[in-house]
Known about the structure:
heterodimer, A: mainly alpha, Fumarate Reductase Cytochrome B subunit, 2 domains, two-stranded antiparallel sheet, two-stranded antiparallel ribbon, 18 helices, extended, B: mainly alpha, 50% helix
Amino acid sequence: MSDALYVFYILPYVAFAIFVVGTIYRVINWARSAVPLKIPTTAGQQPTFKFIKRTWLDKIDSPSNKWWAFVRMLFEVFLFRSLFRNTRYYIEKGGKNVDARWLWLFAVLFHYSLLIIVLRHLRFFTNPVPNFVKTIEYLDGVLGVAIVPPLLMTGVIALIALAFLWGRRILLAKERCISLPSDHLILFFMAVILVSGLLMRYIVKIDLTYVKMFALSIVKFTPPSPEVLANLHPLFLVHFTFVCITIAYIPFSKVMHFAGIWFSPTRNMPNDNRMRRHVNPWDPNPEVPILAREGITVAGVTYKSKKLDWETYYEMYKDQLDEIAEKNYTLKAEEF
Amino acid sequence: MYHKGYVALGIVLFLALLAMPYWVTAGKIKYEEIEKELAPAKGKCVYDEEWMAKYHMELLKDWRELAVRHGVRHYHTENGDFNVSLTECWKCHDYNNFCAKCHNFMDVEPVCWECHYNPSMNYSTVNYIK
Lengths: 336, 130
């Protein structure tokens, strides 16, 4: 039995390997795709005549250089600015806009709570615990000292925010329509992790010393003793397993937005169309046209030609074109 | 690949964030078998060791309510009779080598000592209790 428990020691390494390799793979995959056009989605005043005033808000909204684009990116990443501006999603019958910024509020609460929760978990992975972790935990629990152990507000806020974010996908008709199984899956993972974590802190007490010894053995790359593994509480193993599953699942999921946001073309490009010419980085000025260099592959055969002329085209799609010719070149919808 | 510099910087920052436990402690993470380092108790505790390890804070909370709100100062378990008071703990346990050691290991700061006395304190007002 105790040997089988070493699965839990190997699990985080497997999960992290998948997470790191998968994330880097996806980032590089994104970095390899060209952005052929500059996409100026903006509501701000562009730089123009000197007497047309530009405030700092305009500069964030319509950045004319890399620095202000970077600032816009920071606003996006740390304050979810696009989400904040999303107020026109629901249009009532009377044509009134409904303020949907509660979504922004709960998204911000959820993300920042998770950040603080993750930082607080450093107390399990470091020994001696650095002071900033202690400070974070103290500030987190400063409002909840009335109970034992002190109620940490981020845990409660994250749970409430999660309930809203999931409730939104379940109770609102439009959101329910556009929600995919993967949207619910990640929320389910989050719910299991949060609830099991809160249970362990406030209701089902577990012996944390073994948990910390186990966590330290993971970061120290030294397998824990069978005694430590045998004393891990089942609820902790549920919490831990779901964290590992979530970490391994991230590269395949929508959680990749933590990296993808940096690749948003509408956010990370300075809006300087009129100052600088944006050259399509994808094959901008080839000596040999891509048609001749790489060709087009149809049904396993690659055709290379300087120009796509009729003869080559006919050769490519011979079967289909002949079929059309047999029917006197009359095209009609397929019958089912 | 486009914007190689930015992408490389992003990946380096990402990996650095993941390695956070190492650099926030300057690479010195100490593995401790904390259970073996705790000072042995001089007598039997209120309940068995395993229960106390998990629930001692709940017991103290109950004791607080018993003593402060109900005036009950006597607690009977199969391990004997106990005086409902924090000072009862110091009869068997060494504060620095038992309580504090584990609390420091786990980074748990009990709020008890904002009002109550423990033997590690060195205030002239509480020294007479020792």
